[in-house]
Design brief:
This protein is an all-alpha fold and 129 residues long. The protein contains five helices and no strands. 75% of the residues lie in helices and 0% in strands.
């Protein structure tokens, strides 16, 4: 294979990976780490964003790809919900939640634009050989 896989060139994928990394670091804190069910949910949602971008990029049609971008955005909203609960329980501070919310808003807008762009190209032929 020559060069990086196509999804690795996407800004939204890098933003999602950076966000997931920060969430995984937060999940190592005592209160979250002790609540395994909560840790599993927040980490799963965080990792699902970039994973769905990557998986969708491997699909054969723009509409299939857009569907996975929608899933990524849904996972992003789920992550925001979990982070908000962590804030409510004082497992993360308000300022930290605000930083996460800014990243989530930026990534959500990027995913929305990507999905819209893909849907505008819905009549393109399959990318399969």
């Amino acid at each position: 294979m020559s060069g990086p896989l196509p999804y690795r060139k996407l800004e939204v994928w890098h933003l999602a990976q950076d966000l997931a990394e920060q969430v995984l670091l937060v999940a190592r804190r005592r209160h979250i780490k002790e609540e395994e069910w909560f840790r599993d949910q927040i980490c799963g949602a965080a990792m699902s964003v970039s994973a769905n971008i990557a998986e969708g990029n491997g699909r054969s049609t723009p509409l299939d790809y857009a569907s996975f971008v929608d899933r990524a955005r849904s996972s992003l909203f789920e992550l925001d919900c979990w982070l908000d609960m962590a804030r409510r329980l004082s497992w993360i501070q308000q300022a930290e939640y605000d930083r996460f919310a800014e990243r989530i808003d930026r990534l959500s807008a990027g995913l929305f634009q990507l999905a819209r762009s893909l849907r505008s190209r819905r009549n393109l032929p399959s990318r399969d050989p």
